[in-house]
Design brief:
By secondary structure, the chain is mostly helical. It is built from 5 helices and no strands. The N and C termini lie far apart (54 Å).
Length: 157
Amino acid sequence: MRRWLPPALALVALALIPWALWLATILPSREVAEHWDLAWAGFDLILAAALLATAVSAWRQGPFLEVCAASAGTLLVVDAWFDLLTSSGRDLTYAIVLAVVAELPLAAVCLWIVRAPEAFIRRLAPWRSFSATGTRGRAATSPGGERATRTRSSSRR
């Protein structure tokens, strides 16, 4: 990693603080936006892709599990944030319920995966063995007690 990258990122982060304060004072509280429907639909499709990528990476124990989970968790928090801040009346009630019951708990799970991917994979193991064998319980083991691996037979059936 380049030596200048961490200080540059820190500088950008610090510069964003007065920028955000300035925007909070000059931007209107209400604005009509073009393509509002496409913006939200596109965001939800990106969120769905991140969640699917996390699921596939977890199932396959892929190398990108933490990256996918971090992306999905972040998008879930952003989704809850903007749902809450852009809703009113009955829609606000739905946004609060959705944030508390679905978005934020799922974001917490995603961020737990980032912090402890090995623990998550261990907890997933019984489900993986269930789907592979069709029976609940332990994964198939070899006579030595090690996890059995599938091999392909060279004979025709």
